[in-house]
Amino acid sequence: MKPKALIRSFLSVLFTFGLTAGASAGSFFQAYVVVGEAGKPVARAVTTDTRCPDISIDGKPPRAMQMRAAAANVPNRGGAQTESKGVNFSVAVCDSPVPAGAKKISVAGVALPVPVAHPKRILIIGDTGCRMKGSENAFQSCNDPETWAFRTISETAAKWKPDLIVHLGDINYRESPCPADNAGCADSAWGYGFDTWNADFFQPGKALLRAAPWVAVRGNHESCIRAGQGWFRFLDPSPYDSRRSCDDPAFDTDGDFSEPYAVPIAADTQLIVFDSSKAAGKSYAAEDAAYKRYLVQLRQVDELARSKPHSFFLSHHPVLGFASGKDQTVIPGNSAMQSVMRALHPDRLFGPGIDLTLHGHVHLFESISFKSDHPSVFVGGNAGADLSRPLPAALANGAQPAPGAVVDEFFSSGEFGYLTMERAGRAWTFTEWDRHGKAMLRCGLAGAKTHCVPATEK
Ligand SMILES: [Fe+2]
Hints:
Elements: H1 3-16, E1 29-35, E2 41-47, E3 54-57, E4 63-64, E5 66-69, E6 72-74, E7 87-89, E8 92-97, E9 105-107, E10 110-112, E11 121-125, E12 132-133, E13 138-139, H2 150-158, E14 164-167, H3 194-202, H4 206-209, E15 214-216, H5 228-235, H6 252-255, E16 261-266, E17 269-274, H7 289-305, E18 310-315, E19 323-324, E20 330-331, H8 335-344, E21 354-359, E22 365-370, E23 376-380, E24 407-413, E25 417-424, E26 427-434, E27 439-446, E28 449-454
Parallel strand pairs: 11-14, 14-15, 17-18, 18-21, 21-23
Antiparallel strand pairs: 1-2, 2-8, 3-4, 3-9, 5-8, 6-7, 9-10, 11-25, 12-13, 16-17, 19-20, 22-23, 22-24, 25-26, 26-27, 27-28
Bound molecules: fe (ii) ion.
C-alpha cells in the first residue's frame, strides 16, 4: 500500500471507532452538549485520557475543559437485580460552559453541535437501552438491530437534522449478565459502569450526540441504586457534586430528586424538565418524604411555568398516559405523581400554561388529547428498549388516565420509532416516525389540544 493510501486507511479506522488522532487502542473519546437550567448549554467530553481536552469557541485560543469526574471505581449501589458487580468508570468526564450565542465549538478538534436559542426542529426519544434483566428473565437480543432499534433510530433521526434532542429517560438497561446460552446478547457488557453506558448509549447514540445539543430527562433506570452514578457523570446538566453523585446512599434523599428547570425553546414557549426517577407506582401518603419533596418541586414547576405563556412538561413517568396490561387491559397514569399534583391542582393536575406533557417509561408511542381541561400528552418510550404490549386501538368507553381526565383523541403504536416537533411561526407540529424514518402520524397543537391524522393524510 502506498504511504498516502496507508494514512487514509489509518484515518478511516480512527474515524470508524470514534477516536481522536493520537488515541490508542482501547481508548475512548466522545464530546457533546447538554442543556440545563435556563437553557444554558454545557460542552462535555468523555475520555480515557487522564487530562481534560481543550475546547475552542468561536476561534478564541483553546483552553482546557474542567474535570467534572475523574476515572474511578465507585461504590457498588447494588442495583435492582440479584447479581451485581463493581462499578468502574474508566473514563474522565470534562465540562465547559458554552456562552450564549456561540457559533463554533470544537473539543480536541472535533466540532460540536452549536446550541440554537430558538430551536425549530426538536427530536424526542425515550427508553433506548437494551434490556437484560434477570429478575424477569428478559434478555433482548442486543446484538440484533431489528430487536434493539436504538442504533438504527439514532442514525435515522440524525439525518432529520434536529436543532435539539430530548431524551425522556431510561438509558442504561443491561443490569444482569447475558445467560451463557443466549447468543442474542452474548458478550454484552452489564452492570452500571462505563462499559454498559458505552454499549447502551455512547456507541449506538453517537450520531445523535454529534447532531444537536441534548436535554436529558432522568428515568427510573437512572435512580441512585441503579445507573444514577453514570447519570450524574454523563448527562445531568448541573455541576457535579459528590453529595448528588449517588455514590453514598446517605445522600440519596438529594441524589434522587433533582431540581426542576426550564429550557426556553421560543420567545413564548419553554420545556420544563422534571426528575420523576424515584416516583413510586402507587399514591403517596401526605406524610411520605417523597410526597413532601415532590410537592416542593411541583410548586417550583408552577413558578417556572409563570415565566412563559406556554410550557411543555417533561417527566419520565407518564402522569396522564396509559400503560398496557395483560389481556388488552389499560392501566391509568402514574398514581404517585398524580397524588402529589392533586394537592396543588385538584382537577387539572397541572398548573396554568402547561399545554402539553412528554414522557417515556411505557415502551409505546401514545398521543392523547382531552375533552376536559388537561394538557395533551405524548408518550415516546419506543426508541429501543423491548416494546410493551400494544394498547387497544380504541380505548374502552370511559377509560381515563386520572379521574376526570376525559379522553377526546387517542392514538398509540407498538412499533419502534421516534417523535419530532417542528415550529413554523408560533405553531408546533408533531410527527411520529417509524425507525426507518417513515412518517406515521402528524399532530397539530392548538392551546392544550392536539389533533392528529395519519401522516399520509393532509
Ligand atoms: Fe422507565
